[in-house]
Design a protein that fits this description.
Layout: E1 5-11, E2 15-22, E3 32-33, E4 38-39, E5 45-46, E6 50-52, E7 54-57, E8 76-78, H1 80-84, E9 93-95, H2 97-101, H3 128-146, E10 159-164, H4 170-182, E11 188-192, H5 193-204, H6 207-214, E12 223-230, E13 235-242, E14 252-257, H7 265-280, H8 290-309, E15 319-324, E16 336-341, H9 342-353, H10 383-394, E17 404-408, H11 415-428, E18 435-436, H12 442-459, E19 471-476, E20 486-491, E21 500-502, E22 508-511, E23 515-518, E24 520-523, E25 534-536, E26 543-544, E27 548-551, E28 565-574, E29 580-586, E30 594-599, H13 618-632, H14 647-655, H15 664-676, H16 685-699, H17 708-721, H18 729-742, H19 748-759, H20 770-778, H21 784-798, H22 807-816, H23 832-842, H24 855-862, H25 875-887, H26 892-899, H27 906-913
Parallel strand pairs: 1-10, 10-11, 12-17, 17-18
Antiparallel strand pairs: 1-2, 2-3, 2-6, 4-5, 7-8, 7-9, 12-13, 13-14, 15-16, 19-20, 19-24, 20-25, 21-28, 22-28, 23-27, 24-26, 27-30, 28-29, 29-30
């Protein structure tokens, strides 16, 4: 039985909105906007049509609000009151959660928000998915209280259309659905936001009549409509084609969508804040603290809304003042104040975000882009350059022009910004201005359009022909190198729902009991590619997705089957809900088995470019496996003269190169034989030390190669088994080295277990070895409080008069306090105040004596500039440290990374890791 209501939800970066259609009102019922009860800026309950996408974490013990009546958990308040708190307690407010959903460099299901806050505990933090779920829970409670007449009409029982940016990839879409499920909403279909905005306009207007009135010639030709959707966090462009025909019946086809551009109103807030900040700095040039900066950004947001929402002339010299609280010892310190004129604010917006550019312009590559809030904002803030690049890159216009434009999103509410966009486009097409499709209520247009779209699904009326927004490709591995990388088109752009694509021309061999992994790429600029077509890899046109993977258990193929292979085909289908699903289908079977592939959304370890897997010489691997099997096999072999101690030299001789030169593919291949002998390393002390040494070498750094997560599951058995010779110092040393080498592949839970076990050995005679501290310093995923406690212990050890034998303590301290983690998330680094305190403990120490010279390297890590205020130490500490390091013989490189922002490079990775990385392995850090 169909639900009574069709509900559209706009889960926006800045605001959420809820609209619905009541079927009982008849076939031509109109979408309505629902009010959303919430606490206003004061303590009164208000019922506006928008829910600001801000979440306030109430301080412990604050029971002044009943958050549960709005569907959120105790102590968490969403909406207007939460937004207002950014002016008072900004570090307890979470904003821009939607932008985090598409930030593939972090674990979006980990508790990382509010980013950089020192006011909330680890236990209070929330994941981007959890925050999004709380907003949806609030909307659910509002609908159930305001609209539903009984339980059958509760939101969780209605048909829901939830909108997402057109540029959201498969991972971000799945995480959005996960948030909906966490909020109890399961009957959910996804719709692209630009389409929803277009549907809202189409519901009230005739597209053909509007275009004919302005452009009579379009009655005989296909016309192009551009949707520009610029909200608080993202910029989306979509192109649509309208075929000529009778008014009201012309089909509309979506041609292309842009790549994800993390650029919107939030960036304007930051730009205004940067403009004002120099006025707030004291004579010494001290930067604002993270808390002051949050206050300034909030003030800049309010200023932006007053400037863009007002009616003053663009060149008005009206002065706007903003204040941020002073910080220091005095309880009566006056706030510090800056100002900006209306005209200057308008100039920043127009010239910084909507400048006139040539039609062949491309976004400027200016490094990493803004690092504020930990988000990877677009490196070029000029939206018009991104638009020019999009239109040129689609290859679809081919001499045609943009005939009409529909502007949506809060950023484009001001008429002068929409006019500027039209002027820029007109300059690209010989002065021909596109027709602006005027709309009202842009703040709720997406929700209304989503609800209207839901009625078209039910009533089978004509809809926009959209299909899948991107083309998807499977990477084919090659040992020839980067230039020869090839991709196989799996799903072409525009593939309609329920159409299956099976690659029968590319059969695959599936090994039972072993994981399979496929690396996919997507592109929005190759609509001409067809399924099965081979194309050359181009870094600028193809973007990696999380890998697809599955494991076919032996039981699925029949009991007792060993090393069985199955021939399978890869099949893809776009579901009615808008999601793409992949399956492996058994070939040549009357009733073929199917194995579903899942996207790995929680990959452990640093982010690397999707890795090529070079072919290895099977004969060499087989010979090496025989050597390893002779020592760690089921039965001891007397047929070889190789002893455990001589195994590595023998392997080097067989392979023909030193172990430093072994490729990642070869190392992981050798692990297969070592894993089989994991329980037989206890045959002797030399067996155990040899196994630990070689296994750690083959698995290092624990991530970066396909299926490394699966290998970490295998390696964890060693932890559960423990040492066979726990009282032998050589075994103990190799034990800690083994875990240090693969630490990056261990998730947080396993790192905490390893940390606890290692920490118990600190202070114990015979077990506290230097490698123990190197391991502890390498565990980046443990809680900050535990890192701080260990740092205090290390400083205590270093406070003795010894000047030698202390290098391991210094190395570990540098890793514990590093501003840029090697593989962990940036939110897991210790607070900058802690790193500053650790420096002050050594400020009077002579760094030129003995091992104290290593402090230069340690503090170049701990005080490294990141341009992320949540991680950077104060300028006073930075200046003091630079002076100390210069006097202590620091290298030019060590001084440079403290003085200015320098991207993290391979040499930095090796230095932090402590060993050479496998040949050919390319990693990138979680945050730079």
């Amino acid at each position: 039985m169909p639900s009574r209501f069709i509900v559209g939800i706009d889960l926006g970066t800045s605001n959420c909105a809820l609209a619905y259609v009541d079927r009982e009102d008849g076939k031509h019922s109109k979408p309505n906007v629902a009010s959303i009860p919430q606490y206003g800026p004061g303590t009164a309950i208000e019922e506006p049509s928008l829910l600001p996408s801000f979440l306030y974490l109430l301080p412990p013990g604050d029971a002044a609000f009943n958050a549960q009546q709005f569907g959120t958990a105790p102590g968490r308040l969403a909406g207007s009151y939460a937004r207002a708190q950014t002016a008072y307690q900004p570090e307890r407010v979470i904003s821009s959660a939607k932008s985090w959903l598409c930030h593939s460099a972090v674990d979006r299901e980990a508790n990382i928000l509010p980013w950089g806050s020192t006011d909330v505990t680890e236990q209070e933090r929330l994941s981007p998915v959890a925050v999004s779920a709380l907003f949806l829970s609030h909307l659910r409670a509002a609908f159930n209280a305001q609209i539903a007449a009984n339980e059958n009409e509760f939101l969780e029982h209605q048909e829901i259309v939830l909108t997402v940016p057109a540029s959201f990839d498969e991972a971000a879409q799945r995480l959005t659905l996960a948030a909906a499920q966490n909020a109890g909403l399961t009957n959910v279909r996804l719709l692209e936001e630009p389409q929803a905005a277009f549907y809202h306009w189409l519901e009230a207007n005739s597209l053909r009549e509007t275009l004919y009135r302005e452009r009579p010639a379009l009655a005989e030709q296909r016309s192009v409509v551009l949707i520009c959707d610029i909200g608080g966090g993202t910029t989306d462009f979509s192109l649509f084609e309208v075929a000529p025909g009778v008014a009201g019946s012309s089909p509309i086809k979506r041609l292309a969508v842009s790549e994800h551009i993390l650029l919107g109103g939030d960036n304007i807030d930051l730009a205004l804040a940067y403009e004002i900040e120099p006025q707030l700095l004291n004579a010494a040039g001290r930067k604002l603290t993270p808390r002051q900066w949050m206050h300034l950004v909030h003030a800049a947001r309010s200023l932006k809304e007053r400037v863009l929402g007002g009616e003053a002339p663009l060149d008005s010299q009206e002065q706007f003042f903003v204040s941020v609280p002073a910080e220091g010892q005095s309880l009566f310190a006056q706030p510090i104040t800056g100002s900006i004129t209306h005209a200057r604010a308008v100039e920043i917006v127009l010239e910084g975000f909507f400048p006139f550019v040539q039609s062949d312009a491309s976004p400027l590559q200016q490094g990493e882009g803004l690092a504020e809030w930990g988000l990877p904002f677009a490196s070029d803030s000029a939206i018009t350059r991104h638009l020019a690049y999009f239109l040129r890159g689609t290859n679809l216009l081919q001499g045609r022009q943009v005939d009409a434009i529909l502007c949506n999103g809060g950023t484009l509410t001001p008429a002068f910004l929409r006019e500027r966009l039209c002027q820029v486009i007109a300059a690209w097409q010989q002065g021909e201005m596109p027709v602006e499709l005027q709309t009202t209520g842009t703040d709720v247009a997406v929700a209304l359009g989503a609800a209207y779209y839901g009625t078209l699904l039910r009533d089978k009326e004509q809809r926009i022909e959209a299909g899948y927004a991107r083309s998807l490709y499977l990477e084919l591995h090659s040992d020839i190198g980067e230039a020869a990388r090839q991709l196989l088109c799996v799903v072409p752009q525009g593939t309609p729902a329920n159409e299956r694509s099976m690659l029968r021309e590319q059969p695959l061999e599936l090994l039972v009991g072993r994981p399979v992994r496929f690396q996919l790429f997507h592109s929005t600029s190759r609509p001409e590619d067809r399924p099965g077509q081979l194309v050359a890899f181009e870094a600028e046109r193809f973007h990696a997705l999380p890998p697809l993977q599955t494991v076919v258990a032996a039981g699925a193929a029949g009991r007792g089957v060993q090393e069985e292979t199955r021939t399978v085909f890869l099949e893809a289908v776009v579901s009615e809900t808008g999601l793409l699903t992949f399956e492996l289908v058994e070939a040549e079977a009357e009733q073929p088995k199917r194995w579903q592939l899942e996207f790995n959304l929680r990959a452990t370890g640093g982010r690397g470019e999707p890795s090529e897997v070079a072919e290895v010489d099977r004969k060499v691997v087989d010979a090496c496996e025989r050597m390893i099997g002779a020592i760690f096999g089921k039965a001891k072999s007397n047929a070889t003269a190789i002893t455990p101690k001589k195994l590595i030299p023998a392997l080097e001789a067989e392979i023909g190169s030193s172990r430093d030169q072994w490729s990642t593919a070869l190392l992981r291949a050798l692990w297969t034989s070592l894993e089989r002998g994991i329980t037989r390393r206890g045959r002797s002390l030399s067996h155990e030390t040899s196994w630990l040494h070689l296994a750690g070498w083959c698995l290092r750094p624990g991530y970066g190669a396909p299926l490394d997560e699966w290998r970490m599951d295998q390696a964890w058995r060693a932890f559960e088994l423990g040492l066979a010779f726990p009282k032998e110092s050589t075994a103990v040393v190799q034990w800690w080295i083994f875990w240090r080498r693969i630490a990056g592949g261990l998730d947080q839970q396993r790192q905490q277990l390893l940390w606890g076990k290692a920490l118990k050995q600190v202070g114990r005679k015979g077990t506290e070895v230097p490698e123990l501290f190197r391991l502890l310093g390498s565990l980046e995923r443990v809680a900050q409080a535990e890192k701080e406690a260990l740092g205090a212990l290390l400083i205590e050890r270093l406070s003795t008069r010894r000047v030698t034998g202390i290098e391991p303590y210094i190395w570990a301290l540098g890793r514990l306090g590093s501003r840029v983690p090697l593989y962990g998330s940036a939110h897991q680094v210790v607070a900058p105040a802690i790193a500053a305190r650790w420096f002050e403990c050594f400020a009077e120490q002579d760094w030129t004596q003995g091992d104290y010279g290593h402090l230069n390297a340690a503090f170049s890590q701990m005080l490294r500039r990141t341009d992320d205020r949540a991680r950077d130490v104060s300028e006073e500490i930075r200046r003091s440290a630079l002076q100390k390091m210069e006097r202590s013989g620091a290298t030019t490189e060590q001084l440079t990374v403290v003085r200015e922002y320098v991207p993290f490079e391979l040499t930095d990775q090796v230095r932090l890791f402590g060993d050479a990385l496998p040949a050919g392995l390319r990693l990138s850090t979680s945050a730079t």
